[in-house]
TrEMBL record:
PANTHER family assigned to the protein according to its UniProt record, in alphabetical order: 30S RIBOSOMAL PROTEIN S16 (PTHR12919), SMALL RIBOSOMAL SUBUNIT PROTEIN BS16M (PTHR12919:SF20)
Protein name listed in UniProt: Small ribosomal subunit protein bS16
Gene3D superfamilies listed in its UniProt record: 3.30.1320.10
Residue stretches of biased makeup (Basic and acidic residues): 116-129
Amino acid sequence: MAVVMRLSRGGSKKRPYYRIVVADERAPRDGKYIEKIGNYDPRLAKDSPDRVKLDTDRAKHWLAVGAQPSDRVARFLDAAGVRERAARNNPKKGELGTNAKERLEEKAAKAAEAAEAAKEAEEAAKAAAEEAANAPAEEVVAEEAPAAEEAAGEEKAEG
């Protein structure tokens, strides 16, 4: 008799709740099982301690006897530190392709250039502000005087 560790679904429609069970592989998913070793509630937050409850001692026992866990139960066992789970998917599948990598590099280079240009503009603005602050007050007054004379001349011409 082949024994498996798998999830047995409970709960109502659109409100799943699972039991982690040890069962004969020929038994139906929600049918007869040998032993219940835990619970899994997918509706709870991922960091919630009540999301997965597992009796690790019984899980170790059934693994020693030869029970084969399903993929999801193997993930739970790995998270609990009971059994190491080897990655089953292609680890390179999620990596970006060469064109996408090139686009990202171009985007990063443009962002760096824009940041450098903004920094240079900021430095130029600071330098201009320092020059204006260091300029003698007489020059500023002298520059304002002709403008004031022109304004006065315009008023006389109008009157």
